[in-house]
């Protein structure tokens, strides 16, 4: 009988519900394989993100810390440097492997294509904490804001009340952040993401204050050039690398204090957020559900 092929898992991230959160496929394959091969895998899985994780560990100075390489690919075959929900899904799949459970590993260091470390830590009650770069959003000129509002109004199909627009800043240059008035009902809005294609940014993050006292802010994210129609990312971890500094600064929240946030896409997602200002990092804490596991035959 032939040996089983590389294992994979289908995971819903940032949720405790199997059909909530953001889906991702996790494949434990040689990450040095050609991009067209890994892109083909991503297209076949047809999940919002494929996290390719090296099947063996890199050297580690601590037996309780596993170090793995990771690459992120969207279904159209394009590769991205950072994916929050892809990191969380990969950590969930790896923490659930019997060999990892047996060693009592509590921390994973994922090395991305730039050599940056994306850290994942196992917490209580099924939560996993991931650690991503943060960046304070950059101020835009009035002319740029006026231009961007035109795209937003077209996407929403109405005159949208916008309190502020900022770019993602260092490390998140392709991102643009829009704070809308809470009355805009972000969760209930039908948004034509294709109307945002020519605005000069890849990732469009819309956020409002939350009327629910349990959360500080809610959000939705659209990247129509990267994500197939309707162009929305159900739960975007990396967007919180921009939103956390924005909301912590606006609300005067102490660095290191945990707050709750919610992504209000159709599937929805729940996040616990900690911005560490001096370190330039944001910690995202969430649960995940494994829907299926199997082995590739390639």
Automatic annotation (TrEMBL):
<dbReference type="Pfam" id="PF02567">
    <property type="entry name" value="PhzC-PhzF"/>
</dbReference>
<protein>
    <recommendedName>
        <fullName>Diaminopimelate epimerase-like protein</fullName>
    </recommendedName>
</protein>
<keyword id="KW-0413">Isomerase</keyword>
<dbReference type="InterPro" id="IPR003719">
    <property type="entry name" value="Phenazine_PhzF-like"/>
</dbReference>
<comment type="similarity">
    <text>Belongs to the PhzF family.</text>
</comment>
<dbReference type="GO" id="GO:0005737">
    <property type="term" value="C:cytoplasm"/>
</dbReference>
<dbReference type="GO" id="GO:0016853">
    <property type="term" value="F:isomerase activity"/>
</dbReference>
